[in-house]
Design goal:
By secondary structure, the chain is mainly α. It has 11 helices and no strands. The model has no long low-confidence stretch (mean pLDDT 94).
Length: 215
């Protein structure tokens, strides 16, 4: 075996991942069918044929069952800034990454389908949780921008830049949700966002066109 090959998962780890996915799948189905607020952890455990404690071991909060990719969502913008190439600015890196996500119709970018999107929109708990995830994503982005520019973490400049960049992503995410709830299919939404997103990012160019350019 090539030493660069990724070793296969052990049986125990494979079983844990399968159990986690099974619980998540049943939870999503029940949330869509009954609504998030009206579904209990006990009902999810029964559907997945596991103990209630098993559910909470994998998903400490009920919201974690519905928003299973929240860690990826929170970290995405900061990771893009950190990984940007030589000569690239945070604005250009984030713009390219978002357009790539649109082309791929990435669920983390908002392409989650009508049933799932409506489940979130109909739940005050999940709607509030999603707002919190946007806030956390912006905070992570501010930290990445501060690191990228050698600026103290609480300096106003990276925090303002993160607010501008995070705000555009929040608006575009909401736009995808709105189009989804209006009955548009993902390919059609992707076409709309491919036209609209560049206009949104262009509005930030006067302030951020050169900010954080990697040398």
């Amino acid at each position: 075996m090539d030493i660069t090959d990724t070793p296969p998962l052990g049986l125990r780890e494979t079983k844990k991942r399968e159990t986690r996915q099974l619980i998540s799948d049943h939870a999503t189905r029940l949330f869509i069918e009954r609504g998030f607020e009206h579904t209990t952890i006990a009902e999810i455990a029964d559907a997945a044929r596991v103990a209630k404690k098993t559910v909470t071991n994998y998903f400490p909060r009920k919201e974690d069952l519905a928003l299973d990719h929240q860690d990826e969502f929170v970290a995405a913008l900061a990771a893009t800034v950190t990984a940007r190439g030589p000569g690239e600015t945070p604005l250009s890196a984030l713009r390219h990454a978002f357009l790539a996500a649109v082309a791929a119709q990435d669920p983390v970018a908002g392409f989650a389908g009508e049933a799932f999107t409506r489940m979130i929109a109909d739940s005050p708990t999940l709607t509030a949780c999603l707002r919190g995830l946007h806030d956390r994503r912006e905070e992570a982005l501010a930290a990445a921008l501060a690191d990228a520019t050698g600026t103290p973490p609480h300096d106003i400049t990276p925090r303002t830049a993160a607010a501008l960049l995070g705000g555009v992503h929040r608006v575009l995410f909401t736009r995808i949700q709105e189009l989804t709830l209006s009955g548009h299919a993902n390919p059609e939404i992707a076409e709309v966002l491919a036209r609209e997103a560049p206009r949104a990012f262009d509005l930030l160019a006067p302030a951020l066109a050169e900010y954080g350019r990697r040398t």
